Amino acid sequence: MIRDITLGQYYPVDSVLHRLDPRVKLFGTMIFLIALFIGDSVPGYILSTAFLLGVILLSKVPFKFMVRGLKTVVLLLLVSVGFNIFLTEGDVVFKIWIFKATRQGIILALFMGLRLIYLMIGSSVMTLTTTPNALTDGLEKGLGFLKVIKVPVHEIAMMMSIALRFIPVLIEETDKIMKAQMARGADFEKGNLIQKAKAMIPLLVPLFISAFRRATDLAMAMEARCYHGGAGRTKMKPLIYKKADYIAYCVLFIYLFAAIALGILF
């Protein structure tokens, strides 16, 4: 289960999507999320599905690798779908004890489930095709206008970059601790929910200690190198838009306008 987390990991491969400017990918992810909520209809989801499939094909990242990350949100997905099916008023389709499943609830649950899945895959595509350093540079450059109102853009971008960079590190650390605990007789699979939660304590305590130790080491390393934020700092690889980036922007705007039009019509 720990190895199934794909959000925050980078998949190195040469593709059109990997070569795009990180600002384009950040903007594209935002447009995709907006379009999912605007085009809340069958034609809207067909459009979003076609767009997402096209992006996945362009990324050259194996589809199985992206879908693997959905295992981590199965519980959230089941809870959201269940609530929508049984707590939405409408025409009753079937009844389980005191719970009534309605036609409107099933439709709403289907849309909600697809939306959660698409949100997870869409966010994963961005991190899988963008290195943490490029993501930091793109976020800082894209939100540079906020510096006028004294928003610490560089610090925010740096915190997000460090958080994304530490996701695969903590996953690997968790896997090592879990194997060490299992070698000592720990069982993380058997028992009810409460017993499984108690079994996680020997895993979480050393994981938190390791995370705080790594954070302290990183802070000391940054302080030893006299790191003081983004003021006056230059980039070894400055971000420059290319022809492919402008084409991608045009495609994104066409997709957004199409989603808005479908949202109005349907």
From TrEMBL:
It is found in: Membrane. Pfam families: CbiQ. InterPro entries: ABC/ECF_trnsptr_transmembrane. It is a multi-pass membrane protein. Keywords: Membrane, Transmembrane, Transmembrane helix. The chain crosses the membrane at residues 26-53, 73-94, 106-128, 148-171, 246-265. Coiled coil: none annotated. One of its GO terms (cellular component) is plasma membrane. PANTHER family: PROTEIN ABCI12, CHLOROPLASTIC. This is Energy-coupling factor transporter transmembrane protein EcfT. It comes from Johnsonella ignava ATCC 51276.
